[in-house]
Protein: MotA/TolQ/ExbB proton channel family protein
Organism: Candidatus Desulfatibia vada
Amino acid sequence: MFDFLAKGGMLVGPILLCSVLALAIFLERIIRFSKLRQRGAGLAEKVSRHLDLGNETAALEDAGNSDSPMGRVLSQAIEVIGHDRETLETVITHATEKEVRGLSRYLQTLATIANIAPLLGLLGTVIGMIKAFMIIQQMGGKVNAAVLAGGIWEAMLTTALGLSVALPAMVAHSYLVAQVDRYEARLQNGAVMFLKTLAGNGRR
């Protein structure tokens, strides 16, 4: 296998590096999201019940102890619960955006890998084709079919490798973006429930 890949030229190494980085990012994000899946579940409802009873201390304690994006958003919202509606909404929006940025970490890198991997493969193919035609020139135009065919398939190898890295990376990126969107929707629903609870209690 190593001998086979070595025939692809100097750009095989960067393409393989891209594949390792893409896999590492995907696994790290999957592990991260799996840990967050249960954290914060039902927290917005629990906090709302405390607020209905006028127990802000218990609401803040539950939110702070959850160690979840929802908990951090609600904690910051509870801390400014005595301020005007505009301030409260600004704090919630800022906290939500901060958590979404944290959830989206490394996704831009993954998208970049998906974009540059096929370009690296194409560049390797072009370099390989240049070498093949240089060999033809050195042979004085006497084309050796075996030499020419070998040079071409070695040149095309990098394109195949680049696409093999780019396609899974694109799928992984789309999947992770969908996961982030789902968590963002969950945070927004929790914030809306929080604001409705305050409005129902006549606090806003």
In short: The helical segments are 2-6, 12-36, 43-52, 56-65, 69-79, 85-103, 107-138, 145-200. The radius of gyration is 27 Å.
